[in-house]
Amino acid sequence: NAWVSDVVEVAPGELVFSGHTSAFSGAAGDMTLFQLDLDAGFGWHLVHGSPGVQENNEAVTRLIGGDLVAAGSRSGGAIDGYMLRANDAGAWLWDAAVNLSSKDFFTDVAPTADGGWILCGRTYEGFWDMNILAERRGEDGSVIWRVPLGGGLNEEALALVEHPTGTVILAGYQQLIGDDPQGLLTGLGDGGAVLWETLLPKGTRLADLLVLPNGEILAAGSIWENGPTSSHVYLVRLSAAGAVLEEITSVSGTGDVVVRTENARIAVLNRTADEVYVFDPAFALDSVMTCGNSAAELTTLTATSGGGLAAAGILYFGGGYTQWRPYVCRGCE
Question: How many angstroms separate the CA atoms of 63 and 41, rounded?
């Protein structure tokens, strides 16, 4: 069983999936990377783990130098934030764990202009108090800075990006137990210092973001209508300093992954409905893409060369939805 959590295009028509599998070392999961040529099929795969240790891979990115970095968590008692670096041929280079508390998780990883990478996720104070975890690493993987952010509220960063100005921008949410979530964006400067924070209306939750060509920020998530059982796709456009410029509430569902195509369209994956919504440059809904396979569960999305899209996830087979394998659905935006 191989679960897919993220995908990145590393060359025209060549995708790398990240995820985890339990097929190679028993009950515990192994961090996994798969390579797929859209014309030739699956190529190399990398499986990395230890017996009795659960490794979950949440995100993958391609560095400027061509190497791949995957990030997630590893549990063999305590839960550590965990990352793995591989070359573009799928060969393992090194791995590292981060242990600030009894539970640390990485949820996203992104490249930086200097050849390094940034990561975000969550760390815990005690059993329930959840804070944002963010760190920056150099080209050689050394830690440049690492910061926990928050206090008094449960806060988590689900996505991040480096802005051309050098600011690291985090997207996620904060929430008191028993209260509605509020979308949260945070800009970090040198040393991880907080430059600005933007708190969005109650009932919002951000899951992904990107930087537009004009330097503005576009974040995607969901907004509750009548509680968590009724939500709509939510887009928010902000200045580079975090000022809200526009909020767009669209079709029913959730916005879990947002990408920009070569043709200036914005595509948003709704994991709940296994649909991709494509918006024109003015953020009007233009089309809806579905994979057409009821046994598929889409988990991630990437723009491909030539203006296309590739949604990835898993395909269930066998009886009782107990077995699954990687799955990709291609479409034109």
Answer: 23
